[in-house]
Amino acid sequence: MFTPAWLCNVMNNHLDREWFGRENVFNTENADHTWTVTEGKIVFPPQKRRKVPLWQRYVDSRRLEITCGEAPYLVSRYDASTGELILPLKRRIGQLDRKLRIVNENTETYADWAKWALRAYESCYGYEYQGDSLLIARVNLLLTFLDYYRERWGEEPDAKLLAVIAERIAWNLWQMDGLKDTVPLGKPYAPVEEISLFDIPEHEGQASMPVALPCRIKNWRRQKYTCFRALKT
User: Fold this and answer.
1) What pLDDT band is residue 233 in, cutting at 50, 70 and 90?
2) What is the pLDDT of residues 71-97, one digit of tens each?
3) Are 3 and 80 contacting, i.e. CB atoms less than 8 angstroms apart?
4) Distance CA 144, CA 97 (A)
5) SS3 of the chain: helix, strand, coil, percent, to 5
């Protein structure tokens, strides 16, 4: 089952309502499951004695799509339920799409745009059990970068920049068993067994048993790797 774009939009709008403290920041939801794009530059709340501009804080705010599949909550190149492309880019409703719109509206030079587009990618995470779905999700994030780059600069990005973006995508979208926070197909779940008083349990440290490898992610701001499980405790 694929999540329709309108439902992704509803949930992402809820997140932005909490962040901005108001309704209809990026678009207005319609009764027929469509949406009307908010025109003009996105307005941020009044800033009180903060050194970092709010638009930069928004771009850096971390997002995680659990069991992401094709990552429709992060990027919305197409409606996952119909396959229909979503154009123009302002109509896209993914969390990363919104960050890239903010980057477009608040940067003027190529260097600033590239810097904050990269930071937008560094702040978006997702995990998926199925390897084929994960591959599609990664492709969607990479093609999304190409879409925004071409629209802003009217040309193709160089191979070096694409390699950097691809590295971020490879780290931030990873394959994981969400119930165990480990690499899939490692150590199997322990079967539920009833033993009697005279049963001898098997030794758990047998060399033939697969190892459950915990998944790691990277904090790009601190250039530090951490176990995903540790973030939940």
Assistant:
1) low
2) 999 999 999 889 999 999 999 999 999
3) yes
4) 8
5) 40, 15, 45
Q: Does residue 203 register a pLDDT over 60?
A: no
Reported as a pLDDT band with limits 50, 70 and 90, residue 198 is: low
Per DSSP, the chain holds a count of helices (H) and strands (E) of 6, 7
Report residue 34 CA to chain centroid gap: 23
Give residue for tokens 């250039």: 223
Helix (H) or strand (E) holding 54: helix 54-60
Report the 10 Å Cβ neighbour count for 176: 22
Tell me the domain boundaries of the chain: 54-181+211-232
The model scores a pTM over 0.85: yes
Structure tokens at 110: 């190529």
* Mean pLDDT lowest among 48-52, 53-57, 141-145: 48-52
* Cα 80-59-18 angle, rounded to 5 deg: 75
Q: How far apart are CA 123 and CA 158, in angstroms?
A: 22
Taking phi first (over 0 means left), then psi (-120 to 50 degrees means alpha), and beta for anything else, what does residue 40 get? left
Q: Which residue has the tokens 């979503």?
A: 86
Token pair for residue 210? 């697969």
CB 219 within 8 A of CB 209: no
Q: Are strands 124-128 and 224-227 parallel, antiparallel or unpaired?
A: unpaired
